[in-house]
């Protein structure tokens, strides 16, 4: 008989988790590394939770446990693995408030958006558990052909700091339902949430199936270079993604890379200006611009650009910047000092290059990594602000005169993560949407994701996809069976 998943449920009552201690999880047990460190609360610059710093020996132990767990977990029937992932999703939902508060403290995002991140994480886990990966079958007079999808082995999930819970859950769900134990490595900037998530998961998965290791800048390298994993699922910057791919190539690990973006939004001349301007500002400044698929270039038809700019400015002025627990805050602080300095560099450029600031431009001084939402009106098309990803709330407003010009400008980038077309004519918009070189293209919205469909980048925005059937297959080998009659 195949071994079974642990699915002993989770009560909906008070939290069973402690929110002031955090540990690695190795082989189903809490594991305290020899040394520790702490993150920084970006709103106050004070120390946040103390977390372990995993050593290479800790990595070795986790790999041994994962390898052992692979033998049994891969033999658990698919439906039972789905059931365990669903039970984990229910438990995360029951612990939503605790996770959201922790997220606001360590990541900085306003509590409302932290709660939305947990909701999305729950739905991604359930999404992963709702897809089947059936055998494919072909038959002719001479033979039967079967294609089946078998788990790869041990997976490693490397997670960035902008959506630490959601992105970890995306990897956990896909990896575990397909039969691959996974080791989650949260970002050193947001380690506590990822560790707590893995701790919560121990109730639903046998030892070694879901493990969590937090560490310093060496940890990602050790995990990727280790001989045991068969798969690395990496979400982060394009620069680091290239390093991950290079080091994974030495052992021919499968890689999925979800990388940076420079999403264009193209606003045609037939839109409702006031309404669309508010939405564009929202999708540019949500999560303080720290979203891979935030709008990072705004292309507006030259006939309406002045009116559109003024409407965006009016709306942007209503967006409140502040500490994530304050009522009505839309933009929390930038998550960390390194990122804050990087975004400040774009403000320095704006000053040096005498760019036209439509709104924002001046940042508050004092404690916390706060940056005012800023729109730059028609900077040079070869400026860093138009070409690179600030990953913060500063965005260029640009113009075009024909549909062809808009598409050409939108595609003039190494990135290809997302893009959107805004128009009251759906047919015209859809035709243009298909010309955007990006993994996800929206019409009259942006940043919406759905676990049923693949998410991935074209060009330097990534390799492979997460979510949907494509996401599940990325954790599997395909095996073809020829049955000769
Ligand atoms: P990052 O590349 O600096 O770090 C991402 C993760 O990789 C962290 O956990 C980090 O510790 C780890 N890491 C760093 N060096 C490593 C190495 N050599 N080997 C293995 N792991 C290593 O990215 P970040 O600053 O945390 O996140 C921001 C970036 O992520 C932005 O570019 C953003 O667009 C991108 N992002 C992409 C997506 C997507 O789905 N495409 C989603 C969110 C963020």
UniProtKB/TrEMBL annotation:
SUPFAM superfamilies in the cross-refs: ALDH-like
Residue stretches making up the Aldehyde dehydrogenase domain: 37-480
Biased composition (Polar residues): 1-24, 44-53
Broad class of enzyme this protein falls into: oxidoreductase
Catalytic activity: an aldehyde + NAD(+) + H2O = a carboxylate + NADH + 2 H(+)
EC number: 1.2.1.3
Start and end residues of each stretch annotated as Disordered: 1-55
GO MF assignments: aldehyde dehydrogenase (NAD+) activity
Xref: Gene3D superfamilies: Aldehyde Dehydrogenase, Chain A, domain 1 (3.40.605.10), Aldehyde Dehydrogenase, Chain A, domain 2 (3.40.309.10)
Keyword entries, A-Z: Oxidoreductase
Pfam families in the record: Aldedh (PF00171)
Family assignment from sequence similarity: Belongs to the aldehyde dehydrogenase family.
Name the record gives this protein: aldehyde dehydrogenase (NAD(+))
Taxonomic source organism: Cadophora malorum
Phylogenetic lineage: Eukaryota, Fungi, Dikarya, Ascomycota, Pezizomycotina
